[in-house]
């Protein structure tokens, strides 16, 4: 019997296999293209959504700057906030940082929705960046948030300790803040002269003649109102507080309560917004300078002694530094940071500005003011005394007091991010000219970039 079964020949099988291979290869190639495009779209979507989320968080925090909780009697739980927002400019590079202080309130409600009690903490929040790199994602910056509790249980914390730094955003390329009508000045007192310097350009701005017979000022302090306060020695007696308006140059004074309670050199602005003044009885007077009324007289603890001492200063991050009259350099915190200039200077007055920036002066005629970064432990700048129109013999006789208090109620914020992965050919990307900040971003690469900007109204300034 004939076997008439049909089947594929070897040639047909080979042809079918070859066609199938071509189809599978094309399908796989298409799948790869779709997968790559999906990853690209997901990466870019994450870039945009992350940028918007971070901007919302920053806007909320900055709007809260300076909020001071008041109870039902109108009393502040922790007193006035002297520096509600401090912007540290990074110059022509990435990135700026901002420190914000406000009261955070958690209300307890009853069944009818009425507030029965409130828990209040005074919070200091710092946003800053650190450089980061990885083998497959390249170099970039990360944005961090660090919180410090300054007040708890209706009392200021004696030794506030910063919490851990939390990563808020990765792949940061630009973080700039601008608060143009504020000021960031350094004040040096010299007998009856107040010298004013700009801490961004590190240049002399102007000198205010404080007049006579006022002479031999001691340490100085600055309030949230921008006024400068200095103890004055008249004829061997420290019996006045000079009140200086750096903007107008006007000078007024406040007399001590009397010979029985004569003041001594050493004034400082406390975290509660009150002016602390040394007395000749080893006590410290505490004044509300809005009313010029004596609030209380205290026995000073170490914290109060420190901010009244011209040779001791503590940063907002808790770094304590001390100058020693007999030794050159500056000694900081338990980590024994030693700072010294190439001139082996013996400093007589030091003062922290914003962040970890420390100013130091020897008090000698014509001596420059050195600028240190206590994190990098390096001399990062010098204010050349006697230049830019300043008298060559000028000096910082007492405490050098710094202020970065911003008075404008709006802050301009710019945040630049890039994608995790590179895509396509390298292209040139430049920062838009209409965006704020002095960091001129200009790069050529194959990453995707986006910039977010906002003008934020600070409610409590």
Structure description:
The chain is mainly beta. The protein has two domains: 45-180 and 408-457, no CATH class; 185-403, YVTN repeat-like/Quinoprotein amine dehydrogenase (Methylamine Dehydrogenase, Chain H, 7 Propeller). Helix content is 13%, strand content 44%. Strand 18 (312-314) and strand 19 (320-324) form a beta hairpin. 32% of the residues are buried.
Number of helices: 2
Sheet having the most strands: 8 strands, antiparallel
Under CATH, the topology of the largest domain is which? Methylamine Dehydrogenase, Chain H
Counted up, domains total 2
Structural class: mainly beta
Q: How many strands appear in the DSSP assignment? A: 30
In percent terms, what proportion of residues is strand?
35-45%
Can you name the CATH architecture of the largest domain?
7 Propeller
What is the highest CATH level, the class of the largest domain?
Mainly Beta
What is the terminal separation in angstroms? Answer: 106 Å
> Percent helix among the residues?
10-25%
Look at the structure and name the CATH superfamily of the largest domain. Answer: YVTN repeat-like/Quinoprotein amine dehydrogenase
Mean pLDDT: 81
* Low-confidence parts: none
Rounded to an integer, what's the Rg over CA atoms? 30 Å
Shape: elongated
Notable characteristics:
four-stranded antiparallel sheet, single chain, 2 helices, Methylamine Dehydrogenase, Chain H, eight-stranded antiparallel sheet
What's this model, at a glance?
This protein is mainly β and 461 residues long. 13% of the residues lie in helices and 44% in strands. Strands 1, 2, 3, 4, 5, 6, 27 and 30 form an eight-stranded antiparallel sheet that branches. A four-stranded antiparallel sheet has the order 9-8-7-26, with no helix packed on it.
């Amino acid at each position: 019997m004939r076997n008439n079964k049909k089947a594929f020949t070897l040639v047909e099988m080979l042809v079918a296999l070859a066609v199938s291979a071509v189809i599978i290869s094309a399908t796989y190639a298409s799948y790869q293209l779709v997968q790559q495009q999906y990853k690209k779209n997901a990466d870019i979507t994450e870039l945009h959504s992350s940028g918007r989320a971070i901007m919302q968080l920053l806007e909320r925090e900055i709007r809260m700057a300076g909020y001071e909780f008041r109870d039902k009697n109108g009393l502040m739980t922790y007193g006035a906030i002297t520096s509600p927002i401090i912007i540290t400019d990074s110059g022509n590079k990435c990135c700026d940082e901002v420190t914000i202080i406000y009261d955070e309130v958690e209300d307890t409600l009853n069944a009818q929705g009425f507030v029965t009690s409130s828990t209040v903490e005074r919070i200091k929040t710092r946003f800053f960046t650190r450089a980061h790199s990885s083998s497959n994602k390249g170099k970039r910056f990360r944005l961090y948030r660090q919180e410090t509790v300054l007040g708890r249980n209706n009392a200021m914390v004696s030794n506030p300790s910063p919490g851990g730094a939390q990563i808020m955003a990765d792949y940061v390329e630009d973080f700039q803040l601008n608060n143009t009508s504020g000021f960031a000045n350094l004040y040096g007192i010299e007998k009856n002269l107040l010298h004013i310097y700009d801490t961004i350009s590190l240049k002399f701005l102007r000198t205010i003649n404080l007049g006579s017979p006022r002479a031999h000022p001691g340490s100085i302090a600055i309030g949230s109102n921008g006024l400068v306060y200095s103890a004055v020695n008249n004829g061997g007696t420290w019996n006045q507080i000079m009140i200086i308006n750096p903007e107008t140059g006007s000078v007024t004074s406040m007399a001590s309560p009397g010979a029985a309670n004569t003041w001594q050199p050493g004034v400082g602005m406390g975290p509660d917004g009150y002016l602390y003044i040394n007395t000749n009885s080893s006590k410290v007077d505490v004044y509300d300078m809005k009313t010029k009324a004596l609030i209380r007289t205290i026995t000073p603890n170490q914290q109060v002694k420190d901010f009244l001492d011209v040779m001791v200063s503590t940063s907002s991050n808790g770094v304590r530094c001390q100058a020693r009259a007999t030794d050159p350099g500056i000694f900081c915190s338990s980590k024994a940071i030693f700072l010294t200039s190439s001139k082996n200077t013996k400093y007589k007055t030091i003062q922290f500005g914003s962040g970890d920036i420390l100013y130091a002066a020897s008090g000698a005629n014509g001596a420059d003011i050195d600028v240190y970064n206590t994190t990098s432990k390096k001399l990062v700048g010098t204010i050349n005394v006697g230049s830019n129109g300043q008298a060559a013999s000028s000096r910082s006789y007492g405490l050098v007091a710094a202020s970065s208090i911003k008075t404008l109620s709006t802050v301009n914020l710019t945040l630049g991010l890039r994608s995790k992965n590179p895509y396509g050919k390298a292209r040139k990307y430049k920062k838009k000219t209409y965006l704020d900040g002095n960091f001129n971003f200009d790069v050529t690469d194959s990453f995707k970039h986006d910039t977010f900007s906002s003008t934020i109204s600070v409610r409590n300034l």
